[in-house]
């Protein structure tokens, strides 16, 4: 079969890796570089790793795997009737088409937004790194995982870092866990401005509901916008993301969507771990095997400077510390979620237990 994949992020590349021995696999990627790690971009910006370390799969890896990678080629339209993908350079027939176009950083809408940077690609990282090295400090807007990762790594590298966040808590966690994250990052030098809504940006800083915060380098990390345009243009149903069922099927026959661009029952997963997980399950489904992705079970792993954290399942309500690293959450006496912080070795077994609880496997 001819499997055509749009997007060379963790979703696309993991799927290609799974299926390349069994089928012809062709990936289209509009960027000019082979696969790189987005979670490592803030390490690179901070100067904690060399650029080469970002590239997990170099070009010869694709060759060895027999994956045909077309870099610098943008997919434009899916001709569902002829089963052909139209790019800016040509037309390619497919048996199975997988949209793994990911997402972009959500754009701020405030006045002066042209003074704000965002981080998604290696190119964005290069721009931020150059400015940071010139100014020595940064202001980060957004206390999501990208903002916290960036803050942690920049502070670890000795840069001055201010973090502005509209809430007092992070990542949907309770006050206690949010305080733990904050204290750990404060120890490494991050200055927090919590409960501060961004109103306006200018060349020298930001006006927030908690006053004016100075800073020449301002990075906005306030979420993602799924890349759904090609699906929309091709008449495939979309909401915030490309709408899929639990088999990753879109509204078009033989067209699937995985990763950050896909929306299942209102859920956009938004992590590399999930995108790679989608790819593995879709590969099994295409092989005709039974499999399912646990969309209802949030499971993410991040590292904020030197602080690793795993967030699994539901983490609201009364929690209970099982040991100094693990706060577990229960409903009707049953484990429904946990946060593992500092030493995250336990996270894997907890995730397994929760999966068993939810899906019986
Ligand atoms: C700074 C940063 C830190 C992160 N840290 C973590 C972390 O610690 N843990 C974690 O789990 N996740 C993390 N993430 C999130 C993670 O990187 C994403 O969830 C993941 O990359 C999504 O994978 P994807 O394959 O769906 O999409 P993407 O990685 O976005 O890849 C999609 C690819 O498709 C290409 N593309 C789009 N449209 C077209 C088109 N029309 N034609 C051709 N190519 C196209 C894009 O150029 C892109 O390369 C981080 C993200 C960022 C930006």
UniProtKB/TrEMBL annotation:
Alphabetized UniProt keyword annotations = FAD, Flavoprotein
Q: Which residues form the FAD/NAD(P)-binding domain?
A: 2-265
Give the superkingdom in one word: Archaea
Q: Which GO terms describe its molecular function?
A: oxidoreductase activity
User: Per the database record, which ranges form the NAD(P)H:rubredoxin oxidoreductase C-terminal domain?
Assistant: 298-347
The cofactors it requires, by name, are: FAD
Keyword field contains Flavoprotein = yes
User: Which PANTHER family does the protein's record reference?
Assistant: NITRITE REDUCTASE [NAD(P)H], PYRIDINE NUCLEOTIDE-DISULFIDE OXIDOREDUCTASE DOMAIN-CONTAINING
- Name recorded for this polypeptide: NAD(P)H:rubredoxin oxidoreductase
Q: Which organism is it from?
A: Thermococcus kodakarensis (strain ATCC BAA-918 / JCM 12380 / KOD1) (Pyrococcus kodakaraensis (strain KOD1))
């Amino acid at each position: 079969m001819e499997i055509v994949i749009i997007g060379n992020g963790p979703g696309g590349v993991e799927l290609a890796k799974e299926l390349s021995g069994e089928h012809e696999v062709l990936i289209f990627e509009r960027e000019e570089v082979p696969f790189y790690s987005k979670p490592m971009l803030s390490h690179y910006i901070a100067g904690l790793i060399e650029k080469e370390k970002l590239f997990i799969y170099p070009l010869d890896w694709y060759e060895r795997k027999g994956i045909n990678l077309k870099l610098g080629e943008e997919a434009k339209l899916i001709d569902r009737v002829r089963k052909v993908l139209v790019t800016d350079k040509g037309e390619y027939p497919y048996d199975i088409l997988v949209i793994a176009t990911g997402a972009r950083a959500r754009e701020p809408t405030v006045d002066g937004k042209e003074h704000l940077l965002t981080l998604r690609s290696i190119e964005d990282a290069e721009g931020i790194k150059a400015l940071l090295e010139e100014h020595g400090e940064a202001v980060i807007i957004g206390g999501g995982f990208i903002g916290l990762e960036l803050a942690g790594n920049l502070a670890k590298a000795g840069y001055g870092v201010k973090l502005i966040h509209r809430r007092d808590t992070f990542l949907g966690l309770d006050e206690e866990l949010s305080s733990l994250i904050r204290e750990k990052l404060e120890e490494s030098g991050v200055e927090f401005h919590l409960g501060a809504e961004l109103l306006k940006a200018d060349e020298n800083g930001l006006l927030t509901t908690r006053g004016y915060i100075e800073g020449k380098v301002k990075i906005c990390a306030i979420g993602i916008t799924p890349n759904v345009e090609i699906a929309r243009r091709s008449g495939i149903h979309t909401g915030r993301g490309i709408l899929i069922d639990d088999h990753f099927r879109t509204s078009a026959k033989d067209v699937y969507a995985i990763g950050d661009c896909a929306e299942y029952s209102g859920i956009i997963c938004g992590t590399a771990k999930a995108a790679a997980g989608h790819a593995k399950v879709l590969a099994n489904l295409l092989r005709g095997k039974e499999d399912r992705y646990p969309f209802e079970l949030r499971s993410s792993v991040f590292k904020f400077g030197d602080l690793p954290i795993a967030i699994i399942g539901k983490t609201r309500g009364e929690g209970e510390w099982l040991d100094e690293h693990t706060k577990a959450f229960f409903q009707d006496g049953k484990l429904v979620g946990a946060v593992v912080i500092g030493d995250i070795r336990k996270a894997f077994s907890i995730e397994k237990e929760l999966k068993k609880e939810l899906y019986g496997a």
